[in-house]
Amino acid sequence: TLRRRNTPVLCSGRDSVVLDRVLLEVDTVAVSASGKCRVTITNSHVIGRIGGVMVAGDATVMIEGSQVEAPMALQVAGDGEVSVRGSRIEGRVQTSKKAAVRDLGENVWR
Predict the structure, then answer these.
(1) Within 10 Å of residue 90's Cβ, how many Cβ atoms?
(2) Closest-CA residue to 42 (of 68, 16, 81, 79)
(3) What digits encode the pLDDT tens for the residues 17-41?
(4) Mean pLDDT over residues 41-55, rounded?
(5) Dihedral of the CA atoms 35, 2, 90, 28 (nearest 10)?
(6) CA distances for 23 relative to 9, 59, 87, angstroms
(7) Strand 51-55, strand 29-33: pairing
(8) Cβ count near 100 (within 10 Å)
(9) Is the pLDDT of residue 1 over 90?
């Protein structure tokens, strides 16, 4: 069973956030990471009506065994990085020049 959460996750500076077995559903952007923040999303379902996961600065996000749904599923800017393994990403994926989205396999992109 997933724990329900309906407030956005904001991570900045050198903070670290772990979402495990969470159903995160918000009307805005579900997860925002900036600075040198690290976010780990495992076994979860993330739904954002505007955005799923937004990354800026040197922030890093690991998505594993999860589902992310949003019109803009992943938006990665700056030197940010998102790694995805065994997950389903539904929506657009956008990266800036230095930013990266790493497909570590067993993913579904729609």
Answers:
(1) 15
(2) 68
(3) 999 999 999 999 999 999 999 999 9
(4) 98
(5) -50
(6) 12, 22, 14
(7) parallel
(8) 14
(9) no
For residues 87-110, average pLDDT: 97
Integer Cα distance of 16 and 8 in angstroms: 15
Distance CA 13, CA 72 (A): 23
Element (H, E) at 91: strand 88-95
User: Is residue 5 within 8 Å of residue 22, measured between CB atoms?
Assistant: yes
Q: CA-CA distance, 56 to 43, in Å (whole number)?
A: 23
pLDDT digits (tens, 9 = 90+) for 67-79: 999 999 999 999 9
The answer to whether the beta carbons of residues 41 and 67 sit under 8 Å apart is: no
